[in-house]
């Protein structure tokens, strides 16, 4: 938060001024403080609608700008576009939010994949969501979703069950968790080093438009969007549209032609979306193998044996190393990799920690 935060909140509350318009106005007046202090005649000279000008003038007369900041800070932290820690992927979309309200910790450079789908789902949809989420979080990829009932909740809960961080993007202010049924889930997310984030301030009305704007943030935060199961009318189709408009890759899990909950996902594949057909090769399937290998190859401090063991852990073939080296030597290498933070031990099984 900085000295300009209150101005961002002020303009975020003005109907008719979206992110694109605000950026143009800030550029015209050189900074957001100058924009806030602009006279009515200056606003008219740039052809703003009368209704927008009236709302700006009226809200300034009410002189609630400091109170709005104070009230929002009771429920959340606040970050604006001009701050260094603003999420990097999100900053680069066409219409990034001008201000974000959040609880938890922002990591602007973490690798994220969004998993979305319908509120109604089959057992198949549940299981495939769990399996894909587990595969990704075991490579330290953060799962992003929308805290909705159904597939979103399953994705978040899988992260929590595996003690991994997850990000939930809300269509409401942080004073009112939506849906209320998932209030306890939101608490679990925070207790598990996760993040709740929204562009809506407190006391925001929840309307259909909010879900559109939330969904663009879900895809915007992510390198890839995965739809595991969705009806044709699912809101996840909006997330797909935003992802494609942002130049992001979309991957879809095919389902039974007899399953109404898979009609949306099957239709996406028909229209050219990338299908996920082998969950055991999920990294290759969704194009993340190169990213993971690049991370490994960049570990200059590791010796050949350490890199070899990491590669075997990555491919679930760690038992092969015991045929090549003595058990004592392997255990020493594993202990050193664990100390360095490259692997973690979970129920007698080693997992990558990057």
Task: Give a description of the structure.
By secondary structure, the chain is an alpha/beta fold. It folds into three domains: 1-74, no CATH class; 112-285, 3-Layer(aba) Sandwich (Rossmann fold); 299-352. 45% of the residues lie in helices and 14% in strands. The protein has 17 helices and eleven strands. The chain has helices at residues 5-12, 19-29, 32-37, 40-45, 50-62, 65-73, 88-91, 123-137, 151-161, 183-191, 208-220, 236-245, 263-270, 282-285, 289-297, 304-314, 327-340, and strands at 77-80, 99-104, 112-117, 142-145, 166-169, 195-198, 224-229, 249-252, 274-275, 343-346, 349-352. The chain has a nine-stranded mixed sheet with strand order 1-2-6-5-4-3-7-8-9, with helices on both faces. Strands 10-11 form a two-stranded antiparallel sheet. α9 links the parallel β4 (142-145) and β5 (166-169). α8 crosses α9 (151-161) and α11 packs across α12 (236-245). The radius of gyration is 23 Å and the shape is globular. 38% of the residues are buried. The model has no long low-confidence stretch (mean pLDDT 90).
Helix coverage percent: 40-55%
The total strand number stands at 11
Specify Rg, calculated over alpha carbons. Answer: 23 Å
By secondary-structure content and strand pairing, the structural class works out as alpha/beta
- What's the story with the biggest beta sheet? 9 strands, mixed
What is the beta-strand fraction? 5-15%
State the end-to-end CA separation: 29 Å
Count of discrete structural domains: 3
Query: Oligomer, anyone?
Result: single chain
Give, in order, the helices and strands: HHHHHHEHEEHEHEHEHEHEHEHHHHEE
